[in-house]
């Protein structure tokens, strides 16, 4: 009758789940948004692996530089073709951790925050694939995609897909450390603040549910 036993999860996952037990703050002026990015060995979410994770928090339209996270993962899988994009060599000079340790640290950092990424589906899927390899469920956090949020501004309806470069140029955001996880997370945080300012101008009573509502799925790329 062992199949009736409740599945046992490690303590770090239980602690992560406990963050969702109380009612979540839904006021966008005080919500902790955690903007994150992953650099990976490629774009195949099933077979490629995470090379680095970078995050930075935004609360009340303020980017919290002190509330950030960065880690580099040991590369069991190496793709030399992508090095020219992210610059991460297999050895390199960064202190690197195992995938399991990186995910544990990431979960402890994000807690129940609203996650934000540009084309978030890819980054979320990469994290979920890592969780799957650890025999754990998917992320529980609400997720926002800055690509979809920009479309909600109705500033431009000429395309359905806007790259981070496209929107950085539009909002005059400097592209420092582009294609590093932490650099792209910071650029995306600046983008989020600017997009929210437009959305709140159009709708002073803007709520989290307005940001989450989307008629299209979060794209991978």
UniProtKB/TrEMBL annotation:
It comes from the Bacteria. Residues 32-201 form the Exonuclease domain. The keyword Transmembrane helix does not apply. Signal peptide: none annotated. InterPro entries: DnaQ (IPR006054), Ribonucl_H (IPR013520), RNaseH-like_sf (IPR012337), RNaseH_sf (IPR036397). Keywords: Exonuclease, Hydrolase, Nuclease. Gene3D superfamilies: Ribonuclease H-like superfamily/Ribonuclease H. This is PolC-type DNA polymerase III.
């Amino acid at each position: 009758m062992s199949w009736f036993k409740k599945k046992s999860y490690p303590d770090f996952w239980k602690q992560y789940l406990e963050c969702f037990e109380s009612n979540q703050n839904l006021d966008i002026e005080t919500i902790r948004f955690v903007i994150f990015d992953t650099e990976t060995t490629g774009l195949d979410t099933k077979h490629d692996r995470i090379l680095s994770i970078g995050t930075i928090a935004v609360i009340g339209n303020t980017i919290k530089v002190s509330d950030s996270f960065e880690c580099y993962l040991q590369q069991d899988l190496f793709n030399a073709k992508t090095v020219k994009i992210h610059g991460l060599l297999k050895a390199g000079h960064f202190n690197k951790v195992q995938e399991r340790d990186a995910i544990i640290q990431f979960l402890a950092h994000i807690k129940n925050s609203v996650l934000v990424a540009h084309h978030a589906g890819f980054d979320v899927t990469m994290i979920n694939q890592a969780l799957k390899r650890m025999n754990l469920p998917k992320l529980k956090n609400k997720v926002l995609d800055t690509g979809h949020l920009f479309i909600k501004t109705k500033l431009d309806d000429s395309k359905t897909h806007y790259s981070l470069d496209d929107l950085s140029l539009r909002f005059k955001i400097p592209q420092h450390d582009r294609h590093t996880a932490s650099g792209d997370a910071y650029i995306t945080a600046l983008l989020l603040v600017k997009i929210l300012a437009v959305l709140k101008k159009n709708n002073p009573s803007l709520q989290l549910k307005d940001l989450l509502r989307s008629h299209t799925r979060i794209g991978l790329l």
